[in-house]
Amino acid sequence: MFIYNFRINGSKVFKVFFTFLTLLLVFILVFVTYKIFYGAKHAQEACVPPNDIFNIEAKNYTNVLKTVHDDLDQYIGMKLNLTGYVYRMPDFKDNQFVLARNMIISSDYNYVVVGFLSENDNGKNFKDGDWINVTGYITKGDYHGDIPVLKVTEIKLCEKPTDAFVFPPDENYIPTSSWV
Asked: Phi and psi (nearest 5°) for 108?
């Protein structure tokens, strides 16, 4: 039978533990400081595509739409790329259409049409319900008051996306200057 007798020196264990904890805290402090300064310097590059076109997808569609409508003057000139279907009202001009999505407003899939009023001379070549992908820039227009109007510079027919429906704006959404 073997008997092991271990003697632990409490002051040495404390010194090792304290040294380890101090090194860990210094490492965390250096890492956080690096992330803050490096991240702040490169945040613009990470959030805004190099060609300065902001891509709107189903997950951010209504948040962007609401933000632009709420503070139109801040977003004039911003270039967007988005997909939607052609939707027209009887009082639209020939070159006008809404680049629309259906926003779900209830659990039984009732929806309303939302989107950017868009203008493009080639828009008349597309019929209501056609899914298109457009690139354009935001201007201030008038349709029963000041609203954002997307001046379309590129337009092409596309397939209906799998995430065709969008949801109401997120109450917690906070626009950042990274895409302005």
From this structure: -100, 25
170 near 63, Cβ under 8 Å? Answer: yes
Lowest mean pLDDT among 46-50, 101-105, 114-118: 46-50
Could you list the residue range(s) of the whole structural domain that residue 85 is in?
Answer: 53-179
Instruction: Render pLDDT for 105-160 as a digit per residue (tens, 0 to 9).
Output: 888 878 899 999 999 998 888 999 999 999 999 999 988 889 999 999 999 999 99
The answer to whether 59 and 164 are in contact (CB under 8 A) is no
How many C-beta atoms surround the C-beta of residue 132 within 10 A? 21
First to last CA, the chain: 77
Closest C-alpha to 118, from 56, 163, 52:
56
Let me know whether 41 and 70 are in one domain.
Answer: no
| CATH at 112 | 2.40.50.140
